[in-house]
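Q: I'm teaching a short session on how sequence maps to structure, and I want students to see two examples side by side rather than one. Could you give me a first protein with its sequence written out and its structure tokens following it? Keep the formatting plain so it prints cleanly on a handout.
A: Of course. Example one:
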Amino acid sequence: MNDKGFTLIEVVVATVLLVIVLVPVFSLVTQSYIHVRMADDYNKAAFYMQERAEEIKVAEFDSIEDEPDKSFGQYVLREDITDQEEDDETGDVLIKKVVLSMKKDGRNLGQYQFYVYRGGY
């Protein structure tokens, strides 16, 4: 009997064991990459919405109005600003509701809602 090499059965068994170990590892790496990309998308969306919210909060109350959708590369920021309460005597708007939402490739990445009051937020 010659002991210089591996038999065909030993090579096949070793290959099967290697595949059984490596397939789940590659799957885990792929899923981790997908989750990292999604987390990056959510972080960017939160950043862009927070940036726009700060711009609205420091703006003059009467100048706060809907703006057209803004694009940041693949991200699209939509804002919806509605009057919530008016002064009964003067008819002036006292409260505005601001809803900011962010999408990327048609996928909703989040929404940020707050109120702006005449004289402060």
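Q: Perfect. Now a second example for contrast.
A: Example two:
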Amino acid sequence: MICSLCTLFACSTYGQEAKQWQVGARLGWPTGATARYFISDKSAVEAIGGLQSEQISLTALYQLHNDLTTLLSEGWGWYIGAGGHLGTRRIEGNTKFFSGIDAIAGINYSFQNFPMNLSIDWKPAVNINAPSTLADFGISARYIFRKNH
């Protein structure tokens, strides 16, 4: 088991390349737009602009990506990360500012013959000045912009 986990960490991620953009939509909490930029083959930053009910938020995450090709088929990967968020929410007619820290863990798939990435994730958030949301799940679909070689 430990050897398998070490092998997963050591493998390079399939479908992700340094300096690659992925842009799309996220359904879940928050629902909105998502943009992911790969700093290297194994690390990325993601921004999520959320608009839900009477809430607007911006989340920034740093992520570490790993390959699942050895266990599944080509294109599968998993990731973990952390970051922060801020936003505003209308509660009983008053606009309240909120902020906090986030974690993220997910599985994604990049199609081999089509520039699309799909992911499902768990993104718990601990708010500093509002109730925390620990049961946040989301599904994202992103178009992959291939870098020019």
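Q: What should students look for in example two?
A: Point them to this: The beta strands are 20-28, 32-38, 43-52, 55-67, 76-91, 94-110, 116-122, 125-127, 137-145. Also worth mentioning: Helices lie at 2-10.
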